[in-house]
Write a sequence for this structure.
């Protein structure tokens, strides 16, 4: 079976490692994604798009693109941060340096708006899960704005659970998601909360529950099997 088939890519699409020569096309993809958002603050690349794309072709992590012909349909990055890096979401969780330096970040994913609903986001998440396992990373973190339902659904469908909600750098409110690299988070939903109910979600997290399921405008919280 080809990698494309294993990751359920549409016919004619190719998943490959991003290269420095892809950066101009990635800027075009990024602009198309931002233009389709009701609020551009829902999606931010740490350090700005130019820096992010350049440093994730080997310096700080790895990137992949989904291409069809000469067009880029999707992009995703796996960041390999230092413990003290400002964009290491482990800092929000208060993890010790030893744990924080071994984490991988599902730090960015974009799909061209005209190409959604084809499983590209799911395939890009799975690619990074496979790569994290190959690298021996024990844990993965991701982040998304509470109002970014597409990212939330994609991440939670692949076994990531919400473990934190609060303000990150720049005053941006974000969920932080977690899973062990080899296995999805499992658990029992005890209560459904509105996706914009920050107070209710923070109370659920404070009592040790995790966000386990994504519904239509709602998130299911409960105890996890960890």
């Amino acid at each position: 079976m080809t990698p494309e088939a294993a990751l359920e890519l549409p016919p004619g699409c190719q998943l490959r490692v991003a290269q420095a020569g892809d950066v101009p096309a990635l800027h075009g993809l990024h602009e198309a994604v931002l233009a389709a958002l009701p609020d551009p603050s829902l999606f931010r690349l740490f350090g700005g798009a130019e820096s992010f794309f350049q440093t994730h072709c080997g310096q700080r992590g790895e990137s992949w693109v989904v291409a069809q012909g000469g067009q880029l349909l999707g992009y995703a990055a796996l960041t390999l941060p230092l413990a003290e890096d400002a964009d290491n979401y482990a800092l929000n969780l208060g993890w010790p340096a030893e744990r924080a330096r071994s984490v991988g970040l599902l730090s960015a994913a974009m799909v061209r708006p005209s190409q959604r609903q084809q499983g590209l986001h799911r395939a890009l998440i799975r690619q990074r899960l496979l790569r994290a396992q190959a690298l021996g990373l024990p844990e993965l973190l991701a982040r998304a704005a509470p109002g970014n339902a597409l990212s939330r659904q994609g991440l939670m469908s692949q076994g990531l659970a919400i473990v934190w909600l609060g303000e990150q750098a720049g005053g941006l409110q974000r969920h932080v998601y977690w899973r062990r690299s080899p296995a999805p988070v499992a658990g029992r939903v005890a209560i459904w909360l509105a996706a914009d109910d920050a107070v209710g979600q923070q109370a659920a997290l404070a009592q040790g529950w995790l966000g386990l399921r994504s519904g239509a405008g709602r998130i299911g919280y409960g105890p996890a099997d960890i």
User: Anything to note?
Assistant: Strands lie at 14-17, 61-68, 71-79, 103-111, 139-144, 161-168, 172-180, 191-194, 210-215, 218-222.
